Every structure is written in structure tokens, then in C-alpha cells.
Amino acid sequence: MARAPDDGHGHGAPDPPRDIRISVIGNNVTISWAIPPMQGETISHISFYDSRRRKIAIDSSNNYKDLEFPITEYTICNLTKGFEYIVKIEYTNRGQRSGVTEQLFLMKNEPDPPIDIRINVIGKDAHISWAITPIQGETVSRISLFDSKRSILAIDSSNNYKHLKFPITKYKIVNLTKCLDYVVKIEYSNRGLRSGVTEQRFWMTENIVTADINTNVAISWTTGIKEFFSVMSPSSSVIYETDIDSIIDNSRLVKYKFNTRTNDLKAINITVINVNSKDGGLYKAKKGEIEDGCSLLVVTGKPIKPTLTLQPEHPFVGDNITITCSSTVQRWPAGFKTSNLRYKFDGNLRRDTKNNTVTIHTLTKADKGTYIKCQATDDLGKISIMSNAITLDPFYGPNHVMLEPANTVLNVLEGTTLGPIQCTATCFPGCKYNWKHNWSGQFTPFPSKFISNQNQNLTVPNIKRSQSGTYLCKVDHSDAERHNKSCISVVVQYGPEDVVLQPKIRVINIMEGATLGPIHCTATCIPRCKYVWKQNSTGHFRPVPAEFISNQNQTLTIPGIKRNQTGTFSCRVDHSESKRHNSTDVSVNVQYGPEDVRLVPNNQFINVIEGSTLGPIQCTATCNPGCIYNWKQNWMGRLKPVPKEFISNKNQTLTIPEIKRNQTGTYSCRVDQTESTRHETTNISVNVPYGPEDVVLEPNNTIIYIQEGTTLGPINCTAICNPGCIYNWNQNWTGRYQPVPEEFISNQNQTLTIQGIMKNQSGAYKCRFDHHDGKRHKTTDLSVNVRRRQTNDKYSLIVLLSISLGSCVLVLLVVIIVVFFFNRRNRGNISDREGTNRSALTFSHSSDDCGTTAGDAGYIDIIDTKENASNSHQDHRTFSHAYDECASAAVDDEYTDLTDTKENG
Has residue 4 got a pLDDT over 60? Predict the structure, then answer.
């Protein structure tokens, strides 16, 4: 049922599509519709849904289809029989979209047309009824009316047709024209499917006369025409004419009798002589275009001789057959009413009769010879003559199709002969045999050279593997489209062949700990090959453990492979039905290393005397495949390759003749595996001992004079040794050398410092440099002269004496002398505090006068302290020189010490 929902476009939206028609043919449906012609481009938009209103793709990719006008038909393929679908159709024109019309339909073939149309004319109205086959879902009858020229007529004021929902199956058409003939057409639709059309002709008159063929019949009616009219036959020929008050005789028409002397011209009475089929029809009075008054003559005869049809035409044993008796009412004019014929069947049969059919269920061979005939009777009781009889002779077969030998699967070795295989069956009246094979993927007939015995026997000599497949014996019935078949599966056995390992590698190098495989062993065998993996790792082959085998023994996988699994792996393939076998091997080399990297001699540290030979030092390791050796030396913090002249024995051996001290360092042997990025390194530390050399004292003095109570040092003793020197300080205070007490030694015995040095610590000091090997040493000597400390009493006495002696000269002179004395004294103290940087200069200046004019004591001593320890070597040399020049003139008891000490500070 079509509906046009509001599409929201407003008042100006075009009308929705109409008159949607659905035609189902097989699994395809053809949909047609009508849209009003419009200017501009008009495009129909069709979409498709299932019964749950889920959208369905119309073609392979789209859920809709756009069709440009004038196309108003579309076919959708491959729908499911018996399913309900919904189609929705709309269209657009100049940007405006119409309303949507939707139609529900069932994927079912066209319903049967309406039957038993009955028409009853009452006055100007035609009362029409009909019958339709009840169907689930909404069923709508459609009735339309046509005139005798087949032009459609409006049934009511505006429509040319009328829709009536089931169960309404009758309708009254009013205000029809008397004495005209019409045609009514009735069809119905259900779920989008339209039935066939049934049409029925009728005449608008209640005056109906029935007559048998070859009889005379009187026809009468009245007319409202008073004069000058004609009485017409169904063939439109004039039977007679009238004038004002009489009938004008037409003696040529001997077919009809009428009273020419009647005074009532309006009362028409005619006798039709010896009625035949052409006499049937409408007799009427006519004046010009005016027709008024009529009578319908219906000529009847016996129903024609029935015919019997058998469905199926050639029934087989086991079929349900339907025998139909068909006859036709002989009634003119053609199309007048529907006569419900009744049928009677005759014959010795078990039957289930319904109207004009009889059904025999499950035909058997025993029904052979059964005859059937029938008669028809119309609604007037007229009985047809008896039909011709049919006799049943049911076909059967092909049945019991059998192959000998009766195997479903036949195994045969390649190169031998298959067969003969015989095919037999039972058929009536006869069987036809055909052998087929599907060697190429589809069944094709066997070459005739393999067939014998009226196509029943099959023999294939020297059979090949390509001839494996299904062999089909098809048995056809000789007189019908019936067949049966029997199959045998022929397996041509061969192999094993083409034994292949995947990957296709004959030698596999694999690192220890990695996973070997999967290695797939494949071969060509029919039936399926049997696979066995074996390994030769100990000199003979043994089965590979089951945990390494999978995929029906075809696949080898060894996770975490070990070096002892190196060897040959063999895949042996056996034929399951014969003694044939084949095999293929793969060699597996488990690589490992470098391991056990060692140096020979196995020392981590080597001392080599400068000038002697280092080595040979041999680097060894365990690798599979072989190792690659590289020697490097840590030179200035960076590893550099050892020069080639020191390397031998395929880079394994290091030898350095006449080694030098600058070749001290770490030597590294790196071992690489040739097939991987793995490497290991081992080191040896090489020390080239030398020294002691470059012995130096800081400060660089061999004789030091120092005042008692001050600090000697620090005096640093340095030398160059490898490994580092061993230092020892000794002193000769008492005439022989003894170790300097530990409290005066620091900095790993290198530094001598004596605070508050005493007079008795004067003497020779010796720094000894020993090499660690105890075989080499050097010494350097230092002479220390400690002077006693001088007090200030003697100096003060001299000053006071000088003042007393001078007091007698002039008081002013005494004052000047005293002031002069104190000023000089202050300058001396300031000079002392300026540090040792000026001491050497002062001493050098004083030494020019050899101590006799540089003050009462004769010279100024410079005390060696931490401050003056940092003075330059020049200062010490100056000091030593000054002492050498003036030492003989200086007497310990006759000098005044102006050195800055804690006391005068």
C-alpha cells in the first residue's frame, strides 16, 4: 500500500511518485513508478529496506540508486524468496524534493488472477462480484471499466479505477448507459505483488433470452421511439424499419419472422429462425444516434468435448500426478457470463477429485494400465460428450546406480591400470550411461578410448597423477529429463618427490642461544607424506626429540640451540602406502664465542726493564667460527692499534723488542667473532721501570746556614723513577749517618722540615733515591750549619756607652746621636719584616764590606722558613755566594742577628 509522508518541504513540494508496480521473476524484482512530467532535470531516488527497515545495498556499493527521467523502472537482483522488502521512491526537480512513496512487497511470484466474476444488471447499475485467493497481509482489489472500444471510463466522478480492501469483493457501478456493452477488469495486489488481470464483458440490459443452436427463438422488447426507427441485429444489419405507423418489410432477410401488421410499433417481437452462434448478441431499436430498447440473445450449446492433461506429462513412479479435465462452455456472444462447469471422472483409479482435477499420490508400478476419462456439465445442465481416455504407464529410474568395484575411494599407483569399473542401473524404458571426470576442476566427458560396453565400463591404462579426481557415472533416463549418478574418488598415489626445506638453505650458521627454525620440510606425496626428522651430532643419526618437532612432524624448531647440537639434520619423507622414501639434509653450525679469552703468560701486570723485550704475549680464545684478534695500546688516554711490526701469529701474539718507557701502558687484546658482532676483551698492564734520574733538591742549595731555633725547610727531594722512587733522609750529626727522625719527614719521605732547629743538628744531610727493584739508587748531599742565637744586651751596652762618652761634648749632640740610633734601629726592624725576598739582596750588599762595616755584628743572616722556601734558586745561590765570600771574616761571637724572629717580632 503506497503512502506519501510529509517530507517537510512545505506547500511547494512536488507530488510523490505514484502507481508503484512490483513484478517478481525468480529472485529478481522489477519496480516501476510514475511521476508527473516537469520542466528541468528530474531525478528519481530509489532506496531499499528489509522488513525491519534496515537499509540494503541496491548494488555492490550503494544503498540507493539515482535515475534520470524518463527512466522510471529499475530491477533489483538476487533477493531472497519469501522475504518481505520495502522500496522507497522520491524524486527531485529544480532543487525541490517530492514526498516519499513506499511500497511493501513479498518476494513471491505473481498471485493467481481473480476468478468467478459475476455481473448483475439492474436498471442503469451493474452489480459486480468476484473471488480472489486469500493471502496474508493487506490485499487490495483494483477494478476498472472500459467501453466496447476498450477506452477506459471513469467509475465515479474523478477516478478511472477503484481500490477495495479485502474482504470486499463486490462493487456497484452506477449510471451506465442502457443497451451498451462494457468490459470490467479486476486485479489485486498483495505486499507489492500484482495478480494477473481478469476481464469480463457484459451488456446493460435485463432482457436476456437463451436459445440452443438450431432452434427458433422469439425475442421481444419495447422502445420509446415512436416512428422512423430501425431494428438492428447483433451484426448491425437492419432487420426491419418503421415509418409513422407501419413496418417496412425486408423480404431479403428470411432469418427473422415478425408481424408486419402490428399497430403497436413500440412493441417489438422477432423470431430468430434456426439459431446459430452468429445470432447471439444484442438486438436493439435505433434512430440515428439514439438507441432505446434492446434484448440480448444468448445462444448456448453443449460444452465442448473435454481434454485430459497429465502433469507431469511423463510421470514417474513416486510422483504425485494431477489429471486435469478441461472443457469450454459454448455460449454466444463471446464473453457472456462465467459458467461454472462441473466435471465427472471415470476410470478404475484411486483418486482425490477436486473440481476439474484428480490427483493420484505416490504413483507406483502397480498403477500401470489405469485409464481415466471425463465429462463436463454447464450451469444449464448441458452435458458434453466423454473425453478420450488416457492410460497410465509410469516411468521409473534411473535407480540403483552401482559401481563395481563398489568402492567410494579407489587408490591406484601411478603408472598402473585403473579398472575396468562397471556402472549399472535400472530404468524404464531404458538407461543412457555417461562417464565424466573433473581432472581440470570441472566435469568433462571421458575420452571414448577409455569407455566400452555401451558406455558402461571405464578403463584407464598407465594412469597418471593428473588423472586423480572424482569419476562420475551419470545415468540418464532415455525419455525424460531424469538422471542419477554414482561417484568414485580415484587417488593416484605417487611420491615422495620434491623434498624441499624452507628456508632453502643447505648450511645454516646460527648463534648459540638463538632459535633454529622453524624449518619446514615439504614434499609431494599422494596420499600425505610421513615425515621424520633425524640429527647426526654424535656420528650417527638419531631421531630429533619430539619437543622440537611440530606441524605433523614437518617443522623443526630448536629454541636456545646449544653448540653440542651442531651437526646434520635430515628430513626423511616416507610414502604411507608404498616402500618409497626420500630425504634432504641441512647442516647446522652453532656459532659461539669469543669465550675463555686469555693471555699467555696469564699475568695482569708485567714489569719490563727498559731496553729489554716484552713478550711474546699470546692472546687465545674459543670461537666458532674462528676468532679475529686485535691488539691495542692505551696511549695518552686513547686506545690505538699496536704497530704491525709488534704483532704476529695472525694477530694473536704481541712482542716488543727494546721496549721504551713511553711504551708503558695497558695493552688490550680484543677478540671478535667472525660472523657476529660479539666480542670480548682482555687487558695486560705493562710497566717499563727506569730511574732514579734527574735528582733535584728544592731549594737547590748544597750548604745552608741557619740560625738556631728557626725552621729548616721544607727541603724537597725529587727524582724521576718508574715506578715511583723510594726516598730516605739521613743525617750525620755524630760522625755517622742515621735516619732522620720521622717527625721531620713528610710527603712520602720526600720533604725534610725541622722546626726549632738546634745547634747540635748541624751537619751533613743526605737524600737517597732508591728504585723499587732495590738495585739502583742515587743520593744528594746537603750541609746545614746552625748558628747560635745572639741577644740584644751587648748592643744596648755599646749604645749607652757611646751616649755617655758623647754627653760631655754637647747635650744637643747627645740628643742627635740618640735620635740617630733609634731611627736606624727602626729601619732595621722594618727591613726584616719585608720578608725574605729582600734578604738575599741585603746580604749581598753587606758582603761587599766583608762584614766589617755592615753593623756591629758584620752580616745579616737569612732564616730559611716557609716564606723564603719559595724564593727563587737565584736567591739561594746569592746567599751561598755571600757566605762563601764572607764566612772567614765572621766570628760566631762577634755578630748581631737582625733576622725577624718571634722574639723581635
Answer: no
Q: What is the CATH number of the domain that holds 166?
A: 2.60.40.10
Mean pLDDT throughout 185-205?
87
Give pLDDT, residue 851.
35
Q: Which domain holds residue 515?
A: 503-591
> Alpha carbon of 290 to those of 176, 184, 242, 246, 857: distances in Å?
15, 24, 15, 20, 188
- What are 534-549's pLDDT values in tens digits? 998 777 889 999 999 9
Cβ proximity of 202 and 118 under 8 Å: no
Select from 49, 74, 106 the last residue of a domain. Answer: 106
Are 488 and 508 in the same domain? no
Q: What's the rounded Cα separation, in Å, for the pair 572 and 542?
A: 12
SS3 percent helix, strand, coil of the chain, rounded to 5, is: 10, 50, 40
* Spatial contact of 179 and 293, defined as CB atoms under 8 Å apart: yes
Residue 187: pLDDT band with limits 50, 70, 90: very high
Judge whether 792 lies within some domain: no
d(CA 446, CA 673): 66
How far apart CA 711 and CA 753 sit, in angstroms, is 7
Query: Nine-digit cell at 653?
Result: 701474539
Residue 376 lies in a domain: yes
Query: Cell match 690505538: residue?
Result: 640
The strand ranges marked E within 646-762 are: 647-648, 653-656, 665-673, 679-687, 690-698, 703-707, 712-722, 726-732, 737-739, 745-746, 751-754
Q: Which amino acid is at 784?
A: V
Q: Are residues 860 and 846 in the same domain?
A: yes
Domain count of the chain?
9
Report whether 50 contacts 39 (CB < 8 A).
Answer: no
- Same domain for 362 and 311, yes or no, is yes
**Is 637 found in the same domain as 577?**
no
Instruction: Choose between 562 and 876: higher pLDDT.
Output: 562
pLDDT in tens, 562-576: 988 899 999 999 987
Instruction: Please tell me whether residues 187 and 215 are part of one structural domain.
Output: no
Cell numbers for 209, please give them.
Answer: 433470452
Query: Hunting for cell 489485486 — which residue is that?
Result: 188
Domain final position from 59, 82, 106: 106
Whether this model's pTM surpasses 0.85: no
Model pLDDT, residue 276:
93
pLDDT at 499 over 50: yes
Domain annotation covers residue 582: yes
CB 575 within 8 A of CB 581: yes
- Looking at residues 512-529, what average pLDDT do you find? 89
Residue 771 lies in a domain: yes
The reply to whether 836 and 849 lie within a common domain is yes
Q: Which three cell numbers stand for residue 803?
A: 751616649
